Amino acid sequence: MAKTGSYRPMRVLSGMRPSGKLHLGHFHGVLENWLKLQETCECYFFVADWHALTTEYENPGGLKKNILDMAADWLSVGIDPSRSVIFRQSEIKEHAELHVLLSMLTPLAWLERNPTYKEQLEEVRDRELHTYGFLGYPVLQTSDIIIYRAGKVPVGIDQAPHLELAREITRRFNYLYGETFPEPQTILTQSPKVLGVDGRKMSKSYDNAIYLSDPPEVIEKKMLTMMTDPARKRRTDPGNPGICPVYVTFHTLYSNEPVKEWVRRGCESAGIGCIECKKSVIPEVVKRLTPVREKREGFLKDPDRVSSILKKGGEKAREAAMETMLDVRKALSLD
Ligand code: TRP
Ligand code: SF4
User: Fold this and answer.
1) Of 4-13, 36-45, 322-331, minimum mean pLDDT range
2) Distance CA 261, CA 243 (A)
3) What is the mean pLDDT of the chain?
4) CB atoms within 10 A of CB 207
């Protein structure tokens, strides 16, 4: 970790629930941002496996594979264990200890009015989420953050309500027991619009994603069948790149300006066809993902290597967490 003299870089922390292999939405929306932060800050990135159980508690069997897949993806894109602390939440039991203590001082009303909680209870029909653990999701998330005294937490907008709660819980702790934790700041990740092959937001649950693990022929097939401007039914119809997912996501992220210019003109004047347009960007996507996929295959062939990276990261994380817990226990007369 980059530490020079008395310079103490800002500690950054973020995590993801292990939902399996990652797609381009995660790559451009989250991981590229982590890669940048890793250059300048002391970063803690963790696999939120306990958080995954808040919704997957009936089927924990898939967890191991999902953790491996996700960690392999992180490492393959360049999240670097020699710079960043990469670990698994459940290996640091102190998160659970802090969670139980925070749960004493967190008013139920704060949790019940959490918009994410209310929304999920409405929307998720295929499982029972009226549980103690699910209600307490943000309390656990707060403990994940403040146990490392993280100053900055990069997350997507969907996590903003959780971070607001984390700040409130932190303030309440500090008010009751004295200044113990810095208030974590949210860094809202500016993520590009990553659309899937059906034109909706790229998401595993929509079955419209291109994965970091997809080989060239799969990428090509998915992209050739990808939805375009629906008004462009025939080759002779002019199109609007501004509403076409091929342009909005793929050319925007992978093509240089001359190619984009060629697409805009060609599409609007019906000078080029959609297949031609797609074929101009597919090789760029393949070129970007091939080294990632190859690294990933290497990691998956040797899962012990991934586990040992997570273990080593866990040791570093645990040291920091144990140090904080000494202060916490003292503050609560538990020392
Ligand atoms: N709730 C986050 C998500 O679903 C994952 C998460 C758990 C997290 N603990 C965290 C993110 C702490 C940032 C900080 O993506
Ligand atoms: Fe989309 Fe390209 Fe077809 Fe235009 S030419 S509609 S940008 S795929």
Assistant:
1) 4-13
2) 16
3) 95
4) 9
pTM of the model: 0.94
Which ligand sits nearest to residue 55's alpha carbon? Answer: 1
Going by alpha carbons, the residue nearest to atom 13 of ligand 1 is: 14
Token pair for residue 237? 């119809």
Residue 30 Cβ contacting ligand 1 at under 6 Å: no
Q: Beta-carbon neighbour count of residue 239 at 10 Å?
A: 26
Condensed to tens digits (0 to 9), the pLDDT of residues 25-67 reads 999 999 999 999 999 999 999 999 999 999 999 999 999 999 9
Ligand 2 pocket member 68 (CB < 6 A): no
Domains in the chain, number:
2
CB-ligand 2 contact for 195 (6 Å cutoff): no
- Whether residue 287 is found in the same domain as residue 263: yes
Q: Please report the DSSP string for 159-186 in residue order.
A: GHHHHHHHHHHHHHHHHHH-S-SPPPEE
Residue 332 Cα to ligand 2 midpoint, Å, equals: 62
Look up the CATH number of the domain holding residue 130.
3.40.50.620
